[in-house]
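User: Sequence in, structure out. Go.
Assistant: Echoing your sequence, followed by the structure tokens.
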Amino acid sequence: MVRALILDLGDVLFNWEPPTSTPVSRKTLGQILHSDIWGEYECGHLTEDECYKALASRYGYDDQAIAETFVKARASLQLDTTFKAFLQTLKQRANGALRVYGMSNISKPDYDVLLSKADDWALFDKIFPSGHVGMRKPDLAFFRHVLQEISTASEDVVFVDDKLENVTSARSLGMRGIVFFDKEDAQRQLLNLFGSPAERGMEYLSINKTLLQSATTTNVPVQDNFGQLLILEATGKPELVRMEPGQRTWNFFIGAPNLTTDIFPDDLDTTSLALSIVPTAPDIATSVMDEILSGLNRDGIVPTYFDRTRPRVDPIVCVNVLALFAKYGREDELAATISWVRDVLYHRAYLAGTRYYASPEAFLFFFTRFTMNLRPGPRRQELTALLSERLQERNKTPVDALALSMRILACLPLGIECSADVRTLVGMQCEDGGWPACVIYKYGSGGLGITNRGVSTAFAVKAIQGCAARTDLKTLNRR
């Protein structure tokens, strides 16, 4: 559990600009700030006059020029009020369970100036300026001193600093470290650490309910049933989605088709998913499955469309049809299709994606969904064993948020360890609580990708919740 947040002050909570109208160049100023002389000054071992004289001697400037440079630098110092407000809200939400500390490499004179730049310092429970402590970052002694003073175990501390070497020292002592690049990224990471990722994700879905529509990678809106069905199955919340159900079979598109032919046929993929998720009269499901059996290709494999003039085959479409048949105990009627998707799995023919799906994880996820519908027996045992091998081969492979969620969701029912993937997934959460838009599927001709933040978020929430059911999430947020 996070109990303490330690923040650097300069370049994190406060910003400043190197002065340009002084004899000391920006390059020399950088050298000064990284010099041993400046380090001694920040630790309080040199007075301001002693420091400026030593720097003037080393760098060939008059000490008054050095002094003028830092007077102007101090004048540019400004508090980031929006970031401060964010931190105050973060602390308030913790209801007294979070303490906030400052830990800064700063001389006594500069610290006095910094204190004058803000009227309210109630955010901090205590500040540790190096000039008063007599130690500075990245020295481990300074970190150990602070940990002792705040009486908090290092694993319960989050440390934020703009310098990697300082964060490295903090991490080496067991703290969770965030390298500050910009305010937005820091806020996102802090929210992911202090908030509940699943709760924040569900809040995003609720705020955007019925608006969780798809778009192409070129930002063209796409109204489709398939993405809505995926969100519905992942969340179990019909109020989040807006669909256009078919009478018997379903169409991928809601309303008029987009970026394809003017007349677009119903497809087996959307239909099978819908009949597996949406309550359907058994006689309708039976009649649809009978129709599917009447349209198998010459290899005995199910096609993608009910329109026989479009003889397309995709292994993931096949797997989704098989999941429907397995739900009704009729998978034996598609023996040739089962044999083919098993070969696709065995020979890793999915690694480049498929005609309609972008990622290998999509095949593994939907294949898992199929096997979970199979009755216990030799077939299920064989397929799940092979599936487990293939999932472990993909373990820790870098992928986008949706593919990662799919992989986790495929691993969970098979008992495959995936905590590292969950940690990565949590770190991908956006500041608004959702996850990034990722390509789910693509147009068969041309390969234009279709994305949906709602699907990415719904899958991520389900993956995190599934892992939380067997793993303490306190260990998943560690950095």
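User: And one key feature?
Assistant: The radius of gyration is 29 Å.
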